[in-house]
Amino acid sequence: MTALSMRKVEVPSPRFSRLHAVVALLGVLALLAALAIVVLLLAAHQPAAAAGVLAVLGVAVFIYLSPRFYAWRYVVPGLLAALVFIVVPMGYTVAISFTNYSSDHLLTFERATEVLLSRSNSDGAGLDFKLLEDANRYRLAFTDEAGQHYLSASFAPGAAQRVKAETVADEPAGTALPLKRVIALQEALKQVTAELPDGTELHQSSLRRFAASRPAYTRNADGTLTDNADGVRIQANWAAGYWQRADGKTLQPGFRASVGWHNYVRIFTEQRFLEPFLRVFAWTVSFAALNTLFTFAIGVVLAVALNWDALRGRNFYRLMLFLPYAVPAFISIPVFRGLFNENLGEINLVLDQLFGIRPGWFSDATLARSMVLLVNAWLGYPYMMILSMGLIKAIPDELYEASALAGAGPLTNFFRITLPLIARPIAPLLIASFATNFNNLTLIALLTNGAPDYLDTAVPVGATDLLASYTYRIAFQDSGQNYALACAISSIVFLMVATLAVVNLKLFKVGRDPR
Length: 515
Known about the structure:
The chain is of the alpha+beta class. It is built from 18 helices and twelve strands.
């Protein structure tokens, strides 16, 4: 036997590597974080959400511990991310769109009812009081308008409590606490109910007075409420989302209720919503399509130019042309807003010096839309340029050499070789760019805020508003702040973008064998 065959082969022991230790530590931390989320959800009285988190956690633990599902370990993180950041928010948005959720209907039915039952009516002007210290406890001394004095039993500040006040002949002895001490004990005094000998209940109404009060509403056995002021019964109107009196008067606050397809019907039947919706939809589709076309055209032309071997300083040009993409949009867009300023902007100053004109970029609808297209093209072309440069590098040089032998020029090479060969692989990215531009809220919010606004619409909407910004303005700037209606519009936008994406994928035949 040779020395080589006699050499002992050492087999590494099956010990955990540092990578395994790090992965195990991250797993333990993720498990603890998930359990903490469950505890917080239970504390917030959300048992359904806590059960959902536990179910997902159990499935994830089973997959990572079972050898049969080894391949799924690499898929689960992506699926969880899609579930948490896409499916759940979209599902929540759709669910809200079937309710009347708005600034007038923020509370649940139970919470709105509790608010009504907590209200009280004050009877009379109340009694002056003094707070007397009795060791570590306190007493309340009252004096009515007739000069009658009352002294309460001693009490310790803390939880809600009822103390009885007895009639006394003379003003109670003792020094009243200064106002500073009374203010410090406000929270405790608000929980004290003082009961006079005749049964009248007193609650603190100001820093110096207690007033007689009684609940404004009483809950009945059948679930209705009674107005204690006039004895009128009040019923819950689920269609309107309010507690309503017999005469039709509603009580605030309103409560959330299911309204079915009402919000979707309003969008397409009420003129105040339909007309601006159609305008905004037409502009949104045009904006997304034109910006995708412009950014791709500029990017691919610059990519072809930068791949020209005879061009000197190509690396410098690449760096300079990529800079617009490197600067964050929330910095670039306000800069452009200043440049296009109608009075002090540098663009109008130059145009005034050269041609004697000062365009109203923010007051004219056509100019405002042109400005939006120009700014977004500036922000988006570097992305298309980088993608096109990579795809052009993958085209074989033999094709251009054969084209040169055939006497073809640069334009022929571009339209017959370059563009057809990069169109298919870049098609999904163009669709993604279209979807991004379709919902480009950041650009509109920072550049024009939708201006110039239409003057013939009942809802706030402008010539440069996209569906995303139109939805935002309905949700947060309209007088009613109708969140449910905004969610309905968002759901429609989601369906539109998804449908357009599927249609474009079918047209480009992405994912199919080109043969």
